[in-house]
Structures are given as structure tokens and as C-alpha cells.
């Protein structure tokens, strides 16, 4: 596996280095993002938890994948600026479970049926 960076940018406002990455893997079908994070962490002398990779697409015919890599100055910066869903993917956060779509619709329709002062009481009970 060989990693080549294509476009490199130092983003001081977001405390990170960002780049488009080409991964050459001629003998393999694909390479895991975890493995790419490991390799980038060693190349840029940082910890693996401060590296985020995403958006990888394998070229038709295999052997080469292209995606994005963000290398933050620290793990705290990663947690501050990365979106929650990507933090969940790399194990830095837990997914927040919310009510299902059907439950939200049922609650909406139940609330439509209450009228007058009962509506205020039912909203207070929910909070």
C-alpha cells in the first residue's frame, strides 16, 4: 500500500492539515480506513485519534482509491471541529438515539387532538 497526497492545505483556523489522498493497492481489492489512518499518523508523526479519513472511492478496475484526509493538531481539535457522525465512525463519540420517525408522527397527531387548556398541560408533561 502506497499513499500519495495530491492537494495539501494547512488550515490554521480549523487547526488541521487537509489533503486529497491517493492510495495505491495493486494486490488488494481495497484498504480499510483504519489502516489508512494508521499509515497517515506515522507519516505525519501524530496520534491515530487525531486523523480523520472519509469519502474514499475505488477506481474502476481496482488498485487505486482516492479520498480525503484531515489531520488535526490534537484530539481536542478533532472533537471540536469534526461533525458528530464522523466522530461516531472513528469511535470518539457515541451515537445519540432519538425516537423513530413513526413515533414522532404519532406524537404529532396525538397533540393535534388536544384542545384548549389541555394542550398546555400536555406540552408541560412532555418537557
From TrEMBL:
Q: Name a single GO cellular component.
A: ribosome
Cite the residue spans of the region called Disordered. 96-127
Q: Which keywords label this protein?
A: Ribonucleoprotein, Ribosomal protein
Family matches, as InterPro entries: eRP_eS24_sf (IPR053709), Ribosomal_eS24 (IPR001976), Ribosomal_eS24_CS (IPR018098), Ribosomal_uL23/eL15/eS24_sf (IPR012678)
* GO molecular function terms listed in the Swiss-Prot or TrEMBL record: structural constituent of ribosome
Q: Which domain of life is it from?
A: Eukaryota
Gene Ontology biological-process annotations: translation
Q: Which Pfam families match?
A: Ribosomal_S24e
Q: Where is the composition biased (Basic residues)?
A: 101-127
Q: Indicate whether Zinc appears among the record's keywords.
A: no
Q: Which SUPFAM superfamilies match?
A: Ribosomal proteins S24e, L23 and L15e
Assigned protein family: Belongs to the eukaryotic ribosomal protein eS24 family.
Query: HAMAP family this protein is in?
Result: Ribosomal_eS24
What protein name is recorded for this chain? 40S ribosomal protein S24
Organism source for this protein? Lipomyces tetrasporus
Upper lineage is:
Eukaryota, Fungi, Dikarya, Ascomycota, Saccharomycotina
Amino acid at each position: 500500500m502506497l499513499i500519495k497526497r495530491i492537494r495539501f492545505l494547512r488550515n490554521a483556523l480549523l487547526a488541521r492539515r487537509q489533503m486529497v489522498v491517493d492510495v495505491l493497492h495493486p494486490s488488494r481489492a481495497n484498504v480499510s480506513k483504519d489502516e489508512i489512518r494508521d499509515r497517515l499518523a506515522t507519516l505525519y508523526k501524530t496520534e491515530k485519534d487525531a486523523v480523520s479519513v472519509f469519502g474514499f472511492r475505488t477506481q474502476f478496475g481496482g488498485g487505486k482509491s482516492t479520498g480525503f484526509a484531515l489531520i488535526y493538531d490534537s484530539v481536542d481539535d478533532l472533537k471540536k471541529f469534526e461533525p458528530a457522525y464522523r466522530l461516531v465512525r472513528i469511535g470518539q463519540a457515541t451515537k445519540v438515539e432519538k425516537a423513530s420517525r413513526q413515533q414522532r408522527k404519532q406524537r404529532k397527531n396525538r397533540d393535534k387532538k388536544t384542545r384548549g387548556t389541555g394542550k398546555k398541560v400536555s406540552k408541560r408533561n412532555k418537557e
